[in-house]
Fold:
Amino acid sequence: ALNTGFHNAKMRYIFYTDADNQFDLKELRKALPLINKADIVVGYRIKRADNLLRIIGSRVYNFLVKYLLHVRVRDVDCSFKIFRKEIFDKIN
Structure:
């Protein structure tokens, strides 16, 4: 479903988030100007709504992704993201 939505989007940018209310959508105003400097803008959760074990697991996972894949984001799995549409136009 996400793949279909991303490829069929008509606008210049695509905003993606989950519907579990972990994010204040008003924060989009702060994130949107950053897309002028990058292809993808990834948010991060300040106050995670998860238990301690999940938080620890997430930190370990994020560290490994950053170290092994050289990805420079604070929260890899954060679902508060803005993409340039052209990224998906290049992917089959």
